[in-house]
């Protein structure tokens, strides 16, 4: 079948070219209008901050009375947000997570300082926003954490005994104890909380015996790529989920299933994160 011989007149070609130009122009103006609107809103917020001496966050930047103070990046999690605090040049300084005790409304912001490993827990019942806590305690100085500000926060809001990041009294008092896992029905294995563990493939092993398993998924969330590690007991029940803040970060937020607590910590070797976190779970009797 011969191909149809379609020829456009010069007039028709001009019409098509004009229409294409209009489409491109409209798209450009629409996009520019969106950008201008967002920038206008940002500038209005900054000016309001300057005039009223307020602390605000706009476009991932904390402003104190209109002056840029630090960068505060947020990441949505179901009903809450996790934050990372950076200097204005982008140095990552601290991880801030909202933690709630045993599915209750007793929540606090956990500040984990990356350089020192210090941890403070500020109750959100006080009504302060994260940016206000950062500025009011003068946590950032130049390219790093202000040591005096960090010390002040740690003294005012130390971690509560038995809450996240350690062994609670209800879990164990002994440091070297033989435990059965899980506590519900099913296969149980015996292992020492102080004994070392290793990973072989997707298996978690202690003393030559398999005590659990894990799998690692790489997630791309709106351009933010990170690893998420799920840990299971010997019966395949989920016991914890560890989420990396970013693919190049050593910081993981670990949520344990039995009490829904968040534990933020820094792994020593990123390539060995699965094993380090498994060791943490065994030591604290989560696995």
Detailed description of the structure:
The structure is a single chain. The chain contains four helices and 18 strands. The chain is α+β, with helices and mostly antiparallel strands. It has helices spanning 10-52, 130-136, 147-156, 273-283; strands spanning 55-58, 61-64, 67-77, 80-86, 92-100, 107-113, 119-123, 140-141, 144-145, 178-181, 189-192, 198-200, 203-206, 209-221, 224-233, 238-244, 251-256, 261-266. The termini are far apart. Strands 1-2-3-4-5-6-7 form a seven-stranded antiparallel β-sheet, with helices on both faces. It has a seven-stranded antiparallel β-sheet with strand order 12-13-14-15-16-17-18, with helices on one face.
Distance between the termini: 71 Å
Low-confidence blocks of residues: 161-188
Please report the number of helical segments: 4
Structural class: alpha+beta
Spatial order of strands in the largest sheet: 1-2-3-4-5-6-7
The chain-level mean pLDDT equals 76
Could you give a short account of the major beta sheet?
A: 7 strands, antiparallel
What gross morphology would you assign?
globular
Helix content: 10-25%
- H/E element string? HEEEEEEEHEEHEEEEEEEEEH
Rounded to the nearest angstrom, the radius of gyration is 26 Å
Q: What's the number of extended β-strand segments? A: 18
Strand content: 35-45%
């Amino acid at each position: 079948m011969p191909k149809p011989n379609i020829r456009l007149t010069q007039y028709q070609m001009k019409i098509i070219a004009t229409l294409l130009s209009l489409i491109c122009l409209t798209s450009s103006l629409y996009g520019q209008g969106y950008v201008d609107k967002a920038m206008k809103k940002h500038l209005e917020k900054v000016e309001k901050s300057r005039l009223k001496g307020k602390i605000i966050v706009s476009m991932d930047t904390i402003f104190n009375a209109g002056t840029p103070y630090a960068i505060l990046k947020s990441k949505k999690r179901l009903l809450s947000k996790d934050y990372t605090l950076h200097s204005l040049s982008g140095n990552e300084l601290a991880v801030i997570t909202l933690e709630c005790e045993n599915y209750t409304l007793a929540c606090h912001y956990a500040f984990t300082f990356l350089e020192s490993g210090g941890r403070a827990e500020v109750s959100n019942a006080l009504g302060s926003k994260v940016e206000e806590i950062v500025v009011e305690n003068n946590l950032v100085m130049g390219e790093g954490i202000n040591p005096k500000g960090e010390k002040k926060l740690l003294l005012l809001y130390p971690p509560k005994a038995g809450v996240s990041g350690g062994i609670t009294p209800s879990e164990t008092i002994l440091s070297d104890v033989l435990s059965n896992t899980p506590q519900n029905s099913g296969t149980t294995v015996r292992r020492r909380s102080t004994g070392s563990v290793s990973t072989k493939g997707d298996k978690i092993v202690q003393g030559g015996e398999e005590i659990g398993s894990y799998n690692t998924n790489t997630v791309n969330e709106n351009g933010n790529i990170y690893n998420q590690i799920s840990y299971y007991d010997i019966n395949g029940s989920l016991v914890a989920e560890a989420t990396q803040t970013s693919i190049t970060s050593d910081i993981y937020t670990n949520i344990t299933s039995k009490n829904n607590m968040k534990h933020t910590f820094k792994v020593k070797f990123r390539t060995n994160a699965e094993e380090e976190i498994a060791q943490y779970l065994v030591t604290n009797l989560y696995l």
